[in-house]
Q: What sequence folds into this?
């Protein structure tokens, strides 16, 4: 014997809304918003790169924000010169300053390497397990190094 229980028409919509809210809380988009918020903060002395390091880069020097360091390498977020991209800047005493930029709203996976150091944007909320298996180490909220 099967019992049929009436389900209100609105129950499916409520369930779908609950699932979408739950999934939205698990995406790296929150991390992207955190990274974007860095650019809203006033640039501090530790965020500023010397003009000589910025000379060959297509980044806006007024937007650089220090994200972290590993050994003699220091990592910065910046906006491209035209403001359309988010960039990852790598400085080192052993090599030239370089930058990698992405046009996408989510810069996760943007990688920069100078031959000695290698760094990648990794947003909070990103599943880091497969990257760890590939030899990456998380360094702060927005970075992984290899």
A:
């Amino acid at each position: 014997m099967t019992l049929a229980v009436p389900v209100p028409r609105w129950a499916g919509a409520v369930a779908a809304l609950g699932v979408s809210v739950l999934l939205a809380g698990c995406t790296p988009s929150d991390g992207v918003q955190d990274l974007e918020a860095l650019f809203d903060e006033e640039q501090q002395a530790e965020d500023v790169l010397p003009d000589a390091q910025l000379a060959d880069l297509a980044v806006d020097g007024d937007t650089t924000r220090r994200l972290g360091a590993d050994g003699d390498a220091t990592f910065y977020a910046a906006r491209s010169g035209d403001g359309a991209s988010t960039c990852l800047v790598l400085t080192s005493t052993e090599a030239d300053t370089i930058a990698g930029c992405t046009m996408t709203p989510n810069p996760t996976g943007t990688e920069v390497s100078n031959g000695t150091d290698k760094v990648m944007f990794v947003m909070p909320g990103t599943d880091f397990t497969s990257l760890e298996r590939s030899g990456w180490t998380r360094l702060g909220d927005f970075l992984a190094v290899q």
User: Anything to note?
Assistant: The chain has a mean pLDDT of 81. The first strand starts at residue 65 and ends at 70. Strands lie at 65-70, 73-79, 86-92, 98-102, 111-113, 118-121, 137-139, 143-145.
